[in-house]
Amino acid sequence: MALKAAQKQIVAKAQARAGVVAPRVVKGSRSVRMAVQARAFNAVQIPLAVRRVCGSASRRSNMVVMAAAVKDGAVLPEGRKLRVAVIGGGPSGACAAETLAQGGVEAFLIERKMDNCKPCGGAIPLCMVQEFDLPQEIIDRKVTKMKMISPSNREVDVGKTLSETEYIGMCRREVMDDYLRKRAEKDGANIINGLMMKMEQPVADGPITIHYNGYAEGSKIGTPATLEVDLVIGADGANSRVAKEIDAGEYDYAIAFQERIRIPDDKMKYYENLAEMYVGDDVSPDFYGWVFPKYDHVAVGTGTVVNKTAIKQYQQATRDRAKVKTEGGKIIRVEAHPIPEHPRPRRCKGRVALVGDAAGYVTKCSGEGIYFAAKSGRMCAEAIVEASENGKKMCGESAIRVYLDKWDRKYWTTYKVLDILQKVFYRSNPAREAFVEMCEDSYVQKMTFDSYLYKTVVPGNPLDDVKLLVNTVASIVRANALRAADSKSVDVNFGSKATEEFQARATA
Questions:
Q1: Shortest CA distance to 450 belongs to which of 204, 168, 35?
Q2: Measured between alpha carbons, how far is 166 from 268 in angstroms, rounded to an integer?
Q3: Same domain, 393 and 346
């Protein structure tokens, strides 16, 4: 009895500090609780610390904090803001939480791995640096040169069309994600170190209850806790638990494998502003291998969808292809993670939305996902802020649909074109040789970099477009002819210079 009295006193003090009226507490069976929950009365968000203190006693006495069912479009009671839980604290989740908080919505961001080091190339386009106001200190390297390396080891320098102010930013995900989360917190978002276990919404238009394990700093053992919100944004990656909760459907995914390698200073100098991309059946049957520069090391990795069990074999091949330039290096971290290959069949249900990798927003051919993750999180949050009139009204699926419609209109073509390019040029080594050959063309480089750096399709010169089409068709025809002849990758080339360079390496 003394314990219960103490718990009530703690809750009362917390409510007094927040200036709210005490919530109704209901005892009894689940059916009784659900019946009471259907009745309308104002909801109160008990602070996380209070919920943890009262958690065990609440479970023993079968007590729950109830909230009202509120229709979409209804004005919320004075002093009560719209509450949104964002599950996942990567770029999509952090940007969603930041936008919600700035827009007057009460945002809760739940992330388990605050020091997460996702196996990601870490490349971000210039427009993201500008659009999301990213500081220079989180950018490890500014890549202004790139080498595309074919199956026959033909090297093509890419980046000749970049201006002095243009670059591709290279960052470490643990640094960038931490910055974005802290910025969201500074703007008013509530950051919770926790792992979502399940969601419940027993009453239509009622609150969604998030069950999660909360973790104190330095603790590996979680404490069960709950959080009642009006909407949920699933930003919890390719293995999204939120997606499973709304039965979002399965999708194919790639396995990305990456090793961080600290190499000697003289070799690091070579990669100071240079990134490399390797293509070939040896490094991946349907993707590419990469060497991207970081702060004091390089990230060497690859990925595949069609043969995931051989990922370590492809990784070894990527290291072998870059061996001379990374010789003497020491592996300091090994990482692996799934990457979605296409959007999920369902990206929203009721008052639950998916963004970033959870929604499947990774482009084929390039494997880019960071910008699209951050952008989708922001667009989803903006739609909620607008529909709720800065957190003053209830909103739901109609607001989420606005975000999805805008997203599809803006980016559907981009995803479709890159999907086609991957199917055409990543299907065989001859096709990859044709792809690398095309990358040597200055017009191709300009159109490619303009599209990547600024995420807009820049109108091309009609005459150059016709030439590009002719060259593309010719390259594909040659690739098909060589493929039909069952050529070996080391013998495939589209110019005498490539042959001479490869033979020189082989005899060196």
A1: 168
A2: 22
A3: yes
Residue pointed to by tokens 């990305």: 256
Looking at the structure, tell me whether residues 54 and 183 fall in a common domain.
Answer: no
Q: Is a pLDDT exceeding 90 seen at residue 19?
A: no
397: tokens are 């699926």
| DSSP 8-state assignment for residue 327 | T
Give residues with Cβ within 8 angstroms of 112, minimum separation 6: 193, 194, 195, 215
- DSSP run (H or E) holding 117: none
Residue 348 structure tokens: 């929203």
Q: What per-residue confidence (pLDDT) applies to 68?
A: 67
Give how far Cα 481 sits from Cα of 48, 154, 431, 477, 487, Å.
65, 19, 10, 6, 9
**Residues 108 and 84 sit within 8 Å (Cβ to Cβ):** yes
| Collapsed DSSP state (helix, strand, coil) of residue 193 | strand
Is 281 contained in some domain?
A: yes
For residues 164 and 136, give the distance between their C-alpha atoms in angstroms, rounded to a whole number.
16
Q: What is the tally of helices (H) and strands (E) in the chain?
A: 17, 20
> H/E/C letters for each residue in 228-277?
EECEEEECCCCCCHHHHHCCCCCCCEEEEEEEEEECCHHHHHHCCCEEEE
Is residue 231 a contact partner of residue 348, using CB atoms and an 8 Å limit? no
pTM of the model: 0.82
Is the separation of the CB atoms in 230 and 70 below 8 Å?
Answer: yes
My answer on whether 223 and 261 are in the same domain is: no
For the stretch 85-128, pLDDT in tens is 999 999 999 999 999 999 999 999 999 988 877 767 899 999 99
CA pair distance 364, 424, nearest whole angstrom: 12
Residues 307 and 347 in one domain: no
Q: How far apart (Å, rounded) are the C-alpha atoms in residues 411 and 424?
A: 20
Partnered with residue 258 across adjacent β-strands are: 301, 335
User: By 3-state DSSP, what share of the chain in percent is helix, strand and coil, each rounded to 5?
Assistant: 45, 20, 35
Establish if 331 belongs to a structural domain: yes
Return the axis-axis angle of helices 397-425 and 429-439, rounded to nearest 10°: 100
Q: What integer pLDDT is reported at residue 218 of this predicted model?
A: 85
Q: Are both 113 and 187 inside the same structural domain?
A: yes
